[in-house]
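The passage that follows is intended for readers who have already worked through the single-chain material. We present the inputs for a multi-component assembly, then the predicted structure in tokenized form, and finally a short commentary. You are encouraged to pause after the input and sketch how you expect the pieces to fit together before reading on.
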Amino acid sequence: MSAEISKDQVREMLANLFENQMPFHQLIGLTIAQFGQDAIELKITMKPELVGNVLHGILHGGVTATMLDVAGGMIVFNQVLEDMDVVTLEAVKQKIQNLGTIDLRVDYLRPGRGTEFTATATVIRAGNKVAVARMELHNEKGDHIAFGTGTYMVG
Amino acid sequence: MSAEISKDQVREMLANLFENQMPFHQLIGLTIAQFGQDAIELKITMKPELVGNVLHGILHGGVTATMLDVAGGMIVFNQVLEDMDVVTLEAVKQKIQNLGTIDLRVDYLRPGRGTEFTATATVIRAGNKVAVARMELHNEKGDHIAFGTGTYMVG
Amino acid sequence: MSAEISKDQVREMLANLFENQMPFHQLIGLTIAQFGQDAIELKITMKPELVGNVLHGILHGGVTATMLDVAGGMIVFNQVLEDMDVVTLEAVKQKIQNLGTIDLRVDYLRPGRGTEFTATATVIRAGNKVAVARMELHNEKGDHIAFGTGTYMVG
Amino acid sequence: MSAEISKDQVREMLANLFENQMPFHQLIGLTIAQFGQDAIELKITMKPELVGNVLHGILHGGVTATMLDVAGGMIVFNQVLEDMDVVTLEAVKQKIQNLGTIDLRVDYLRPGRGTEFTATATVIRAGNKVAVARMELHNEKGDHIAFGTGTYMVG
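Having made your guess, compare it with the prediction:
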């Protein structure tokens, strides 16, 4: 039986996992700027490889979708974590393995112009089997680039 | 005034543009296997950088979303092209600049296991302002990995 | 302990329940034309009360959404039923109570002109907790009025 | 050429049209509680005919979808109206005829328990061809029943 760990430790571990051990996140430069009890904040710095439209020099819609999906999944995991009574490494691993995106909607509001993009998320439906989150993407000026809605399997 | 070009020439140009001049497509290795009057087929070969889950070794959901979005956009562009009476480079450029994803839904059906993934798409609503496409992602065994639905601005 | 019943009997019961004991279905005139092992077919006959736009005399988008949601829910239930080993009234009731729409996307393709509308559905993701269905609405001429995608809680 | 009318007059006319001359709205008892420059509020009082589940006595998901779709359409129309320089009856009629739902997503958060339901909406993407709105449905206790996202044709 594995020993108990704190929820803050779990968040730190997960942030580290998502930032440093997920090859696709490293490929695009996704970083976890904040992952606390109430909030998730992912960041990405614009670079030539992320451009989707050479004429306009804007962020590829696939990067936007990726950031929103990951932000939603992490905030949903956080909800699962907050609902756990006993937190062990074993139990957390199990929860992470159960987590998966069922469906995702992205609403592209404005062209993705900017130098740094930030994704945030909140849980709108918490459940022990399925959870739903809403996500947002803004650029460094606060322009609202995209909205997302994701339904996730959690149990 | 620019000279007329054939629709097949336009598709070839666009396929080349999407495969070789879109930095994000090159980053993930997206290729245009087929782009004809009735069909679009995008392919991607699995590589470590595209993995979303190191435990399971499956395709990142963001890559899935990217492939579906691009497949939908290209088949919708093809519809716009087929509806053009006079095809000049100038007119085609204008059409490409007008094209943009308004919203995208991805339904993740199965974990993205496989060595090669193929995205296809069909137009379900053709219009001179807005078009809607449905997309599919399969692996090399024919397993159905994901469905997509995208609404695109076209005019 | 309740006695076993056949799956066909269950479908007949459910069709009867949905057609005759769901007040909203009676209000709009929703009928279950077919509910077999592989298919669901809901029908509605146009009547003045279902018009959403008096100028155009077309079906209200809310009726379209309703038909698609119900068709998806029934085909998903059918999947649950087919997966049951022992079918008792008690077990079926439990399954019906667990069933619920998590999210629904409707793509309105054409104005809802016509005298009779038919909704059909297929399961695209079967699971013991969550299932996803795709739905279609056609009029009596076979014009494709709308597409739907629904994610349902099933367990 | 028709005479100019005020934007408040237009909103009043539209509220009246939607409440009293849309047969489906009267069938379900949809009323326009508020329609001002910044806000739309639709209400519906629970009645037996709107029940979707006789066991639980909850609002049918199709009614929820209807309310969200209408709320989104009205707030989007309001945006179109606010963007008009010269407001004549003729021009307004044209705008209403152009308005149509392209796609709608409904997220069902909680069972629709309650005696009165209120739908509200805000525009998240304003455009001269396409607009996107987000909608919410609450019951009389303030419980959040559903979220919606709708993409509308406006021009």
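Commentary: The mean pLDDT of chain B is 95. Helices of chain B lie at 7-20, 23-28, 61-82, 89-98. How closely did your sketch match?
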